[in-house]
Write a structure and sequence with these properties.
By secondary structure, this protein is an alpha/beta fold. 33% of the residues lie in helices and 16% in strands. The chain has 11 helices and 11 strands. The strands form 3 sheets. It has a 5-stranded parallel sheet with strand order 7-6-5-8-11. Strand 6, helix 9 and strand 7 (253-257) form a beta-alpha-beta unit. Bound molecules: phosphoric acid mono(formamide)ester. Phosphoric acid mono(formamide)ester (CP) is lined by residues 88-91, 162, 168, 171, 306-308.
């Protein structure tokens, strides 16, 4: 397609990565049984999913993505409380978009000072009230403990949309969904060793919830990864105990330190994140790293970024084939649609497509 046609059709240029989800669909076996245990489950950590459950969720997500207009009402009559006590663009709006696309209704809280929390009400009491109002809660909070405080009184499922430095499980699900759309053969447990990929992560798992949850999800599909490099600024080395935790899970983690430029020509996937929430504020890491079109990427490599973007990711990469971060953000809507459908007893309404 030439440049003019892009303008006329408003389609994205071919250079931007966005594999069609049907390629992924062809790779995952049809069997929805692994989704049944998700009904009414709290989603707290990337740890709690088996590979089979994740793949079936991705199959449903890919169905939603391939046919966005076909399934519009499985959540009709259901209410979501979207409680975001920390700023968010993507997570809140993509969860809300997902729920709307499935025909449900939403009550949204974007500022804790507008609720009883400002008067000293506990999250446990807020959760007790939520039971009366909705069918599911999505919570983001600056504190790690908030998730369990609210969960303690909930009888409806809660989804962790980022709890301080701890975890962001649905982000990690969207991340690996993107990687599988890019290379569907990575799903195969019997993948030939030479087809395993090398990933470089610029970020620190002990300070960044996206990186921690991503490594947990990677360990669920460890057969797909030959090497996982972790890069960081000189002053922000990863906590050795945390690294050991992921090595013990079977990931071949290598401390790349500051050697990103030397190693990037070998990397199939570059994942970069720069922000870590610390209490009520955020800290920026990775000042020594900036990805630009001049970065010596491997041919065919992709760049992922959970966003929000800072100076570490040049806008000039947006129009290149390395840009899979927009596809990653887009895919998160469909992954969340799949998860929400399964949590609130409505999988049966889309059973024929699972
Ligand atoms: N990926 C992510 O968590 O982005 P938001 O902070 O905008 O939700």
């Amino acid at each position: 397609m030439d440049e003019k046609a892009h303008i006329l059709t408003r389609e994205k240029p071919d250079v931007q990565g966005d594999a069609h989800p049907k390629q992924l669909l062809r790779t995952i076996l049809e069997d929805g049984d692994h989704l049944l245990p998700l009904e009414q489950q709290h989603i707290l950590s990337a740890d709690q999913f088996s590979p089979e459950t994740l793949l079936q969720l991705f199959r449903l997500a890919a169905k939603y993505e391939a046919n966005p207009d076909r399934f519009s009402t499985p959540l009709q009559g259901k209410i979501l409380i979207s409680a975001f006590y920390e700023p968010s663009t993507r997570t809140r709006l993509s969860f809300e978009s997902a729920w709307h696309r499935l025909g449900g209704d939403i009550m949204s809280i974007t500022d804790r000072s507008t609720t009883g929390i400002a008067k000293g009400e506990s999250l446990s009491d807020v959760g007790e009230m939520f039971n009366n109002y909705a069918d599911c809660v999505v919570l983001r909070d600056t504190r790690i403990e908030s998730l369990n405080e609210m969960r303690s009184s909930l009888r409806i499922p809660i989804i962790n949309a980022g709890n301080g430095l701890d975890e962001h499980p649905t982000q990690a699900m969207a991340d690996i969904y993107t990687i599988f759309k890019w290379r569907p053969e990575l799903i195969n447990k019997d993948l030939e060793p030479e087809k395993r990929i090398k990933v470089g992560i610029i970020g620190v798992p002990d300070k960044m919830r996206t990186v921690r949850s991503l490594l947990k999800i990677f360990s669920t599909f460890k057969h797909a990864f030959a090497e996982v490099y972790l890069f960081n600024d000189e002053n922000d080395a990863c906590d050795k105990q945390v690294l050991q935790e992921f090595i013990d899970r079977g990931l071949n983690i290598i401390e790349g330190g500051t050697r990103f430029k030397e190693l990037v020509p070998e990397l199939d996937v570059v994942y970069i994140n720069a922000i870590a929430w610390t209490g009520d504020d955020f800290q920026t890491f990775g000042k020594d790293f900036t990805l630009t079109p001049e970065t010596p990427f491997k041919k065919g490599a992709i760049v992922l970024h959970p966003l929000a973007r800072g100076e570490e990711l040049s806008h000039e990469l947006d129009q290149t084939g390395f840009n899979w971060y927009f596809s990653q953000a887009r895919g998160a809507v469909f992954v969340r649609m799949a998860l929400l459908t399964c949590l609130v007893h409505r999988k049966g309404r889309v059973l024929d497509v699972v």
